[in-house]
Structures are given as structure tokens and as C-alpha cells.
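Reviewer 2 asked us to include a model.

Predict the structure of this chain.
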Amino acid sequence: MNYIYIDIHTHKSKNKFAIQNLFHNEHIPCNNRLFSKALHPWHIDESNFNLQLSELEQELNLDNIIAIGECGLDKLKGVDLKIQEKVFEWHINQSEKLKKPLIIHCVRCFNEIIELKLKFSPNSTWIIHGFNSKVGILQQLLKHNFHISLGINILANPKKLKQYLEIIPLDKLFFETDESDIKIEEIYITASKGLNIEVPDLVAIIEANFRKIFDISD
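Predicted model (C-alpha cells):
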């Protein structure tokens, strides 16, 4: 039986049920794939970001752009954090206007991300991609109704994976391959063992999450 393995964030996967991430200046292929697109915090041009955003805005309303991202905040790389916050707030507004989920890149800025969520009180879903931080931070994110996407880092750390899966509600959970060549199926298999449920059951849960949040009906 062919299962639908949803990959919420990838730069490489050709899986039909994957959301392929596109950076702000990448061309949108003419095919039936699903995409997310945004101005990544690493790529913000400090002297020209308004033009970058203006050009990006023209594409975000396309039907096959089903999410805004990845965008967010990064204390280790990129322009001044105040500029990053201004750009991220622009993406938040686009997410709300277009009613599309936000896929978030966050490096050592979880407090700031939570504060912005409280400030904007968004209706759109906010998804932290590739979460790999402390359990206490995860608990705070869940308290504020974030969804969590887990990636390849869980394959190398079963203990951390177990801690994550013990507290992430199944209806808040996604998986991703990001820039890895690893197949998304491997992540599902590892997570199913951590959850002590069958792979087909986990696949069905994540598919239901996907269809609900991204309003996918077929």
C-alpha cells in the first residue's frame, strides 16, 4: 500500500506530498508541486529589503504557494535583529492577509518569536521548522499554540526524540527533511517507534494535520 508521507519542509525532495521551500529570488516551477516562499533572515539585504519584499509579495498569493516561509529570526547569522524583526513582521502580515500558515526559522530567538505571536494574536498557524532545542522551550512554544516540525536531528538522538514526543500533541506535529537527502519515510519510522504506534497510523495523523492546516481537500 502506498502511504502519503507528508514532508512539511524540504529543499530537495521530489515527493508529491512535500512542501518545497523556495527562497525569495528562486523561480517557481511550472508544475503541480506545493511550495512555500519567503525572505529568509540570512538573505535580507539591509539596504534593499523593501524592494526584496515588494518583489516577493507579487508571488505569495499564487495557489501553489501554500505557506509563507521559511522566515524568522536568527541571532547567529544575518543582519541586525531589529531589521530581521521588521521583515518577519511583514511576513506575519502576509500570512494573515493570505490566510496561509507561517513556517518559521528560529535560532536562539524563541522568546522574541513568542512575544511577536502574543503581539499579533494571529489566526494563521505558526510552525517551527526543524525544532532541536531544549524541552523547556518546546513546552513554552506548545503553551502558545505553535505547531512543531521535527527533522533529521531526531534520527541521531533517540533520547531527545522521546522527550519531544512525550509532550508534543499529535495534532501539533509535523516532520521534514529540510536540506537532507534522507527519505522522509525514515523519520516517520523512527518517530513511530518513539510513539509506540504503527507507521500507517502516524502517517494518517500527520496527513490529517496537513489537510486541516493547509486546507487541502484532495
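The longest strand covers residues 65-74. The helical segments are 49-57, 81-98, 110-120, 135-143, 158-167, 184-195, 199-213. We have added this to the supplementary material.
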